[in-house]
Amino acid sequence: MNRVVLHPLASYDRAACETALTELLAPLGGMVAFVQPGQRVLIKPNMLAGKSPDRAVTTHPEIVRAVIRQVQDAGGEALVGDSPGVGSCVQVARKCGILAVVEETGARLVPFAESLPASHPGATFHHLELAREVFEADLIINLPKLKTHQMMGLTCAVKNLFGAVVGMRKPQLHLQAGSDKAQFAQMLLDLAGHLQPALSIVDAVVAMQGDGPGSGDPIAVGALLAGENPLAVDAAALELLGLEAADCWTQKIACAQSLPGAALTEVEVLGTNPQALRPRSFRPAKATDVSFGVPPLLRRHLRRSLSALPAIDAQRCSGCGLCIEHCPPTAMAMNKHLPHIDLKRCIGCFCCQELCPSGAILTRQGLLLRLSRFLFRAPQT
């Protein structure tokens, strides 16, 4: 069985975080079971964008602090790194509070800037280019924030590792997968299989619901999760939120391939029962695709009606142009001070929504997609 520990944590009080992390890792042998003296330990938080910690966009700095302290107490050298979606690593780390923690603890911030090729024989994506720091580290501790994700359904342990892809190579992978969410999910699974973090610790004290991962709403969950297998951690996280494997594309594809730890039946959840911490109501990401079988030719003709695509909220848009700059298929252009989306070229990756600082990108569902939950009983994703 793949062990995942679930432990309550009601706030980001510094002492409470340190105590909760110790208790969380105790059933797994503590941090000393993973970190040996002298090892270079790469801590990979979620640093999507430079937002304040209360927005629940990034891993909370007090969780990062507690992990750094335990790595150092075990004798390891703590390095903190990521490749943010918008802005430099230093800028984002400063705005989300992580840079201050790194400086106060004596850890080191390592911005992901240089890529090296990573060959993964047997994987669908045979060749990936990843940050140099992931190759130089002795082990990786994955530190995701529990959030909805408009394209994948959920971002947790598996999706957080996408940050090991540097800068503009992210849009290239989006383009390679195109509008095929299963293909993009497969790339994320291949990436997780290559990186194999030693430990994943999930910040679910305050999670994000709705239009995640950048524009959703914070929701108090009051939990930490930890485990060695990212898929098992994600399975437990879905159970915590009351969601199914079909609600998360990486989990859905992993279950179809019978990957170890993907199914909740293969996961032993230690500590607190997930139902005891489950939010009374949790708003998942909007469905973006109808999952029942529709012939490919018909799907192409009915694409707009069967799927969801981004739309601009003119009242919120500040005209900053970040969505245009970061659109993988270059399907956006400025028109009369507002972004215009060429829906024929749009691949539905929702990078624009993910990175919009104003929350001005909406999810517009097609008519058949909106009606599908009433007309069909097959699950949506």
TrEMBL record:
It holds the Pfam family DUF362. This is (4Fe-4S)-binding protein. PANTHER family: PHOTOSYSTEM I IRON-SULFUR CENTER, PHOTOSYSTEM I IRON-SULFUR CENTER-RELATED. Gene3D superfamilies: 3.30.70.20. GO terms for molecular function: 4 iron, 4 sulfur cluster binding; metal ion binding. Keywords: 4Fe-4S, Iron, Iron-sulfur, Metal-binding. Transmembrane segments: none annotated. Residues 308-337, 339-366 form the 4Fe-4S ferredoxin-type domain. InterPro entries: 4Fe4S_Fe-S-bd, 4Fe4S_Fe_S_CS, DUF362, PSI_iron-sulfur_center. It comes from the Bacteria.
